[in-house]
Amino acid sequence: MRAIFRGYDGLIVGLAVLGGVAYALVTLGIIADVVLRNTGFRPLRATSALVEYAILFATMAAGPWLVRQGGHVAVDSFVALMPDGLRRVVGVAVMLLTIAVLLLLCWRSGLNAMDEIAFGGVDMRSINIPGWVPYGLLAGGFGLMATEVLRLLLRRATTIGGTQSH
Fold first, then answer.
1. Per-residue model confidence as pLDDT tens digits over 128-156
2. Cross-strand pairs, 129
3. How far apart are CA 87 and CA 70, in angstroms?
4. Mean pLDDT across the stretch 88-100?
5. How far, in Å, CA of 47 to CA of 3, rounded?
6. Closest by CA position to 137, among listed 156, 123, 151
7. Are 74 and 98 in contact (CB under 8 A)?
8. Which residue, 37, 21, 161, 14, is CA-closest to 91?
9. What is the DSSP string of 68-126?
10. CA–CA distance from 133 to each of 19, 141, 142 (Å)?
């Protein structure tokens, strides 16, 4: 069982690293595109489409790690005024609602991906990308984020955010 947990932890950290690499490649791609345009050379045709997909990948890949680290935005000024008992109840309710919404988004994205696969959908831009790719990225990211929130809940956390105040 520990090997499964270690593997899952490695997956979350590995995806976060890949997300960071994707953002670095996006930066390099945009710089190359601008330099090529401004020096009279023909820019890469696929830069725009690849940048859009890379940003989607990076967001969905880093999202679960950000949930784990408490690195996302959480507004807790109202909740901070509540008594401890009520704050815990509200915190757990918010976490359960978050899990439900993330699972709904995962399910819907997964259905859309399967539809795209079944119908052979293709996103035709400067390059052709299978239509299931964006939906698959969304389904995977939302599913892993839901898993991370559930993991927090099972560890008896009562808030999703970190210890910092926003």
1. 999 999 999 999 999 999 999 999 999 87
2. 123
3. 18
4. 91
5. 39
6. 123
7. no
8. 161
9. HHT-S----TTGGGS-HHHHHHHHHHHHHHHHHHHHHHHHHHHHHHHHHHHHT-EEESS
10. 16, 12, 14
